[in-house]
Structure formats: structure tokens, C-alpha cells
Amino acid sequence: MIDVTLIGTGGMVPLPERFLASxxxxxxxxxxxxxxxxxxxxxxxxxxxxxxxxDTILITHCxxxxxxxxxxxxxxxxxxxxxxxxNIIAPRGSTKYLNSLLVVCGYLPYEIRIAELHDTKxxxxxxxxxxxxxxxxxxxxxxLGYSLELLLKPRFQPDMAKKLDIPVKFWKMLHNGNSVKxxxxxxxxxxxxxxxxxxxxxxxxxxxxxxxxIKDIVKNSDLxxxxxxxxxxxxxxxxxxxxxxxFSEAATIAKEAEVDELWLTHFSPSMSRxxxxxxxxxxxxxxxxxxxxxxTTTLKSD
Length: 302
Ligand SMILES: [Zn+2]
Ligand SMILES: [Zn+2]
Hints:
- By secondary structure, the chain is an alpha/beta fold.
- The protein has helices spanning 40-46, 64-67, 70-79, 95-103, 158-163, 171-175, 212-217, 236-242, 247-256, 279-282; strands spanning 2-8, 22-27, 30-34, 54-58, 86-91, 112-117, 124-127, 130-136, 144-150, 180-182, 185-187, 200-205, 223-227, 262-265, 288-290, 296-299.
- The strands form three sheets. A seven-stranded mixed sheet has the order 6-5-4-3-2-1-16.
């Protein structure tokens, strides 16, 4: 199972109840932080969430509201005695911006490993046991969303294994996808495994205009976290100019991608009560929630 917590849900300017963009994904004792806007370490602290378990920081793009919390967070992790390397993964062209932020950290007792991803085609990679796909977005600078999936093995069916007289000591090998030979008989995993299982999936998209391929990559997510910079449809032209989305655009992606649940985030500071505009999204995709700092859920397999 995967725990997902919104750490900061503000866009551009932090507010007392909304720090800037950040989201924590925890799995199997480790975590991935997506973005690190101003206030991230304070919000993590408020939520009693471990900073030292962060293995990787995925950066959507190098606008200040997504990266300005990095130096403070990295210093705090250093003060906690970390020695294990920490990965930062970001779109092409980000390294020079990230390195300039790291300058103010001075000495860190652990290594920072920065990797850049392609900004125009999706890439797949693995971190902390989760399969991650980057989502090229349309913003003022190179920007990526991310889909994170926990792949699940089909369930082992002991009844089938017993029927075939397969000794118990070979069950695990079969469940792990290996064939086994007992006496003269060969048993293959398909003989004892159930149907393929849908991965547990969470997707995170900010900042962007809607682009066609987002829905393909976030398809069937259990949870889709998407920016909703502006609530009202009347803000459409403003969203186009600023390269952001209005609520109804995020909800349309959620509907077309057939996700289970949509959380809106990255709200304009001009919108002090985004919940007042929820019907612009919920009218299109009913299972929509307005994101709040430290809002959390556990995604489980069926
Ligand atoms: Zn932003
Ligand atoms: Zn931005």
C-alpha cells in the first residue's frame, strides 16, 4: 500500500494555511517527495512525517513555488545525521537551477545525485520499488508530471497447486514467476496464478495547460492530484495566459482518464476559499476533493 499526503497546496504565494507545492508518497518504509515549495519542511514537521526517509525528490519544474523549500529541507536532513545519498530527479535543464539553490546549503554530510529527464517524451524508471512514468507538460519552462505505480503480482492459488500435487516448497518460486520441474513434470506460473491485478497508482500533474497525453498516462489512477489554479470557468483566458488550468479542465482530464478520485491543488492566492468553486469540477467529475495541507490517504490493492 502507498500513503499519499499533500504537504503544500498553494500556488505562487504561501498562505498561513497553505504552504507551497509539495506531496509525499510513502511506500515500504521509504518515501518520495514531489516538489519542495516554501514551507515544505514546516508542513512535514507539523504532520510528523519523516524527512530522513526521503529517498528521492521528483521536481516538476524549477519555478520558485516548487523548489524554494529545498535548501532548508536538505540542511535539516543533514542536521539529522543523514549519510545516505539523496536523489533529485527533474526535467532537462534543471541542474543549473538546482545547483544554484544548493550553493546556500554549504556542506551537506550526504551526496545529492541530480538526474535530468527528457522534457518532451515520457520516461519510465523505478525508485523505492515504485514504477514511475514522467508526463511532459505544457508550462512556461520545462515541466513534468509523474505517475507512480505499485505493480502487483497475480495472487497465488493454493487450491490449484494442491490439485496439481506441487510440493509447497516450490510455491514461492512459481509465485515469483519461475517455472519448476518436479520429477518429470514442468509447472509454469500460469498454472497456479490468478488474474493480472491492476497496479496501485497515483498521478501528480502541476503546472500545465491540459495536454492530450496527460489522460493516457494517468489512466485508471486510484488518485489523480492535479493543479486547479483557478476555480471559475470565467478565468479560462487567464489560465491560458498563465499556463495553468481551471477546475473544469482538471476535472475533464480526471473523467476522461477514468480515475477513481481527483484532488485539486496549487490554488491561486487570489482564491482564499477554493471550496466555493468545487462545483465547477464536481459537475464534471463528482469524486473531486479540494486539497488541503496534510490531507492524506492510503491507497491499497483490491
Ligand atoms: Zn507553480
Ligand atoms: Zn510554474
